[in-house]
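Posting for a labmate who doesn't have an account.
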Amino acid sequence: MSQAAVNSDLKRALENSPETEIDEETKQEPQPRNFLLLTILTCFCPAYPINIVAFVFSIMSLNSYNGGDIEGARRLGRNALWVAVASIIIGLLVIGIYCTVHFTTHSI
């Protein structure tokens, strides 16, 4: 028997194998972004109640994905991103105001 015949028989056997068939139900959607690293980094900004909320949204997004709720994980991840961005902006404002007050009221 030639090598080509053996390869085609093997290929045909593998194509008809139940292990190689993928159902639509078994396909796993990719994990939506939960921005966990960003929310951890925002915990160093001086806007503490807000960055903790961003961190909680991020963890809830991860838990929703693990529970199978892809759309909920996507929504909570988006919320975590917006709250983290707000936390960074508020933190930078607090730092800017503190530096402005400190350097304008104290003599050098």
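Reply:
Got it, the structure tokens are right above this. Residues 30 and 70 are 9 Å apart (CA to CA).
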